[in-house]
């Protein structure tokens, strides 16, 4: 425990140093300033009421937890929702989310912070989404005997729970009344370390992306940009993704293919870098916030909140993040029955990406030559129909995870 706490303090200290020149680190630090007084003032309005505290690492985890929040609000309206985030990329996007009654940054994981935070919130139930195993918080939850649940979790054998140094992490799992995991492998790994209060329920993101698809509303600017052309949407891209994508687009012999580029970060400096790449490859482009130009080859979606709906218009998608140790949410695109591509071998960390590859609805690539070949292959009409039918069955089979989880939680 001593080494864990030292690690937490060092990690926090590094973020404080980085806040001098990194905007996200600055948000992380500023969002936690005077947190005790600020949180107490916000929670005053919820005094004496039943509360559920849900914690999400970032925006992706929020999307997994969102269907639970909104279902709880409908089925159990007497409960108030306290929502916390670790990352600015989650908090800053969701800080005005209408279905939560209080929204906070989670104070860093020390014993005193965990104790104070729990005393302030005074939750009746707690839900952690996917991961974020903060040991001090979990041990305090266990000590206070609060009903706590882990939702949509995935465990891999390289995680610390399954290493020689993992005893403190295993002990922290004792905080959970039930661990709702996505797959059989996670179930078996937990059983191997004596954790048996586990249910295989799948991933709540299926419910979320199905909901988004069913509530689709048109985006006139994208309709205008696409016209009658073929469209690739590259979602949540990082600079290295953009280099690969734009180089490949330039090399495509089919001029009828257009691209919507959706950067992971729309900070002004990074958008300037994107613009420089577009000019480097002599691709005509426009920015969404300045009005989409139907004559341009590339539309840069330099705004938040439209990506998941935009995939409706796509013939296929590229999912970013592979150059940075992971890929972003490929279910958002696949739910529309379109094939997806992504870069690198890190996709194996994501069950849904493995599933899509196994059903030949996705391909991971490692060069611009491969990407060009895959894009050309996926534009074939017979291939598109076959993939769409497979994906329809896949999402139908994996739906209603939220309902199954709520059946287990006693209100």
Write the SSE topology:
Elements: H1 2-18, H2 23-30, H3 35-43, E1 51-56, H4 59-75, E2 80-85, H5 88-94, E3 102-105, H6 111-121, E4 125-129, H7 135-144, E5 147-153, H8 167-172, E6 178-181, H9 184-192, E7 198-200, H10 205-214, H11 220-226, E8 230-237, H12 239-251, E9 257-263, H13 268-280, E10 285-287, E11 298-300, H14 307-310, E12 316-319, H15 331-334, E13 340-343, H16 351-358, E14 362-365, H17 368-378, H18 381-397, H19 401-408
Parallel strand pairs: 1-2, 1-4, 2-3, 4-5, 5-6, 6-7, 8-9, 8-12, 9-11, 10-11, 12-13, 13-14
Helix pairs in contact: 3-6, 4-5, 4-10, 6-7, 12-13, 12-17
Strand content: 15-25%
* Subunit organisation of the chains: single chain
**CATH fold category name of the largest domain:** Rossmann fold
Put simply, the count of helices is 19
Spatial ordering of strands, largest sheet = 3-2-1-4-5-6-7
CATH class of the largest domain: Alpha Beta
> Rough shape?
globular
Structural class designation: alpha/beta
The helix content, as a percent range, equals: 40-55%
Unreliable stretches, pLDDT < 50, 5 or more residues?
none
CATH architectural grouping of the largest domain:
3-Layer(aba) Sandwich
Q: Tell me the Rg in angstroms.
A: 22 Å
Major sheet = 7 strands, parallel
What's the CATH H-level homologous superfamily of the largest domain? Answer: Glycogen Phosphorylase B
Question: Explain this structure to me?
Answer:
The mean pLDDT is 94. The longest helix is centred in the N-terminal third of the chain and has 17 residues, at 2-18. The chain has helices at 2-18, 23-30, 35-43, 59-75, 88-94, 111-121, 135-144, 167-172, 184-192, 205-214, 220-226, 239-251, 268-280, 307-310, 331-334, 351-358, 368-378, 381-397, 401-408, and strands at residues 51-56, 80-85, 102-105, 125-129, 147-153, 178-181, 198-200, 230-237, 257-263, 285-287, 298-300, 316-319, 340-343, 362-365. The radius of gyration is 22 Å and the shape is globular. It folds into 2 domains: 29-202, Rossmann fold, CATH 3.40.50.11720; 215-397, Glycogen Phosphorylase B (Rossmann fold). It is α/β, with parallel strands linked by helices and 411 residues long. Helix 6 crosses helix 7 (135-144) and helix 12 (239-251) runs parallel beside helix 13 (268-280). It has 19 helices and 14 strands. Strand 12, helix 15 and strand 13 (340-343) form a beta-alpha-beta unit. The strands form 2 sheets. Strands 3-2-1-4-5-6-7 form a 7-stranded parallel sheet, sandwiched between helices.
């Amino acid at each position: 425990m001593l080494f864990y706490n030292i690690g937490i303090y060092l990690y926090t200290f590094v973020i404080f140093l980085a806040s001098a020149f990194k905007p996200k680190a600055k948000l992380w630090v500023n969002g936690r300033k005077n947190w005790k007084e600020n949180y107490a003032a916000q929670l005053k309005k919820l005094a004496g009421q039943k509360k559920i505290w849900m914690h999400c690492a970032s925006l992706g985890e929020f999307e997994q937890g969102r269907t639970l929040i909104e279902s709880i609000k409908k089925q159990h309206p007497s409960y108030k929702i306290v929502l916390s985030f670790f990352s600015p990329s989650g908090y800053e996007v969701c800080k005005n989310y209408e279905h939560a009654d209080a929204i906070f940054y989670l104070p860093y994981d020390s014993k005193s912070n965990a104790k104070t935070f729990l005393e302030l919130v005074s939750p009746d139930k707690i839900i952690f989404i996917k991961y974020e195993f903060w040991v001090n918080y979990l041990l305090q939850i266990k000590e206070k005997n609060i009903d706590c649940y882990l939702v949509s979790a995935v465990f891999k054998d390289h995680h610390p729970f399954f290493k020689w140094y993992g005893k403190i992490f295993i002990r922290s799992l004792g905080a959970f009344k039930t661990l709702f995991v996505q797959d059989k492998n996670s179930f078996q790994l937990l059983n191997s370390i004596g954790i048996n209060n586990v249910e295989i329920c799948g991933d709540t993101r299926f419910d979320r992306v199905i909901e988004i698809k069913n509530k689709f509303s048109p985006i006139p600017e994208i309709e205008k940009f696409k016209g009658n052309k073929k469209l690739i949407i590259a979602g949540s891209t990082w600079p290295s993704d953009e280099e690969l994508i734009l180089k490949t687009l330039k090399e495509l012999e089919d001029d009828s293919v257009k691209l919507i580029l959706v950067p992971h970060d729309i900070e002004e400096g990074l958008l300037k870098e994107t613009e420089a790449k577009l000019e480097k490859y002599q691709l005509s482009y426009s920015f969404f916030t300045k009005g989409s130009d139907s004559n341009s080859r590339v539309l840069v979606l330099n705004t938040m909140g439209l990506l998941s709906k935009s995939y409706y218009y796509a013939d296929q998608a590229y999912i970013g993040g592979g150059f940075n140790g992971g890929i972003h949410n490929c279910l958002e695109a696949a739910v529309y029955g379109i094939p997806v591509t992504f870069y690198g071998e890190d996709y194996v960390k994501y069950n849904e990406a493995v599933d899509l590859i196994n059903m030949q609805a996705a391909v991971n690539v490692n060069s611009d030559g491969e990407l060009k070949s895959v894009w050309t292959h996926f534009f074939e009409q017979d291939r598109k129909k076959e993939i769409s039918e497979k994906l329809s069955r896949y999402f139908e089979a994996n739906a209603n995870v939220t309902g199954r989880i709520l059946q287990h939680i006693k209100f």
